[in-house]
Amino acid sequence: MYRFIISYEYRGITAELPLPPDKMTTKLKGNTKVIDLVNSGEITVLKDIGLREISFRVLLPKDETVGISAVSFNPPIYFLSLFRNIVADRKPLRLIILRDLPDGTSIFNGDINLSIDSYTVTENGGEEGDFYVDLNFKEYRSPEAAAAEISSSGETKEETVRETKKTAETYTVVSGDCLWNIAKAQLGSGEKYRELAKLNGLSYPYNILPGQVLKLS
Questions:
Q1: Which segments of the chain are extended strands (E)?
Q2: Is residue 115 predicted with pLDDT exceeding 90?
């Protein structure tokens, strides 16, 4: 089962799409440049890897019974407003993709910073109230990350700070939190959200409330 979670930290919003897309396309282009040298012909210069481009179509149903039953349902207008605000704010979002097998085993989860490049909303006759949204994202790389310096030990400054940061024993949930965000911020990896769920006796990892105190170790 796939789950798509949008985390928009600029407005403190974390929301799961009511239905996962039927398919998702990831496009990656190599940054190559051809230079024509006088008397020597053309040569190819291989540059740093390009930014990923992700696209998918999502259905925003008017009826909550159509979505995943365990997901807290948000109507189409909620997501349409969210997408518009993200574009207007000119801020990146995080797309968290959880890929779980029927037995609950996690096979490969994703967490990527993206910007919305464009999106198209479609309404079909006979399906009043349902909205189809074609979303096109581009991987977001901040200027700070692009200019990150490598230390003499081969680690980035960000990695060094993360290793020296003390891990608290508890964490108090705030509005917009999800277990994946908490695991990444407090434990260094969103993949550890299952450990947090087990440690705190959460049968459903997304069922957390503002003010709730979670044990981290």
A1: 2-8, 13-16, 24-27, 30-37, 41-49, 53-60, 93-99, 110-122, 131-139, 170-172, 213-215
A2: yes
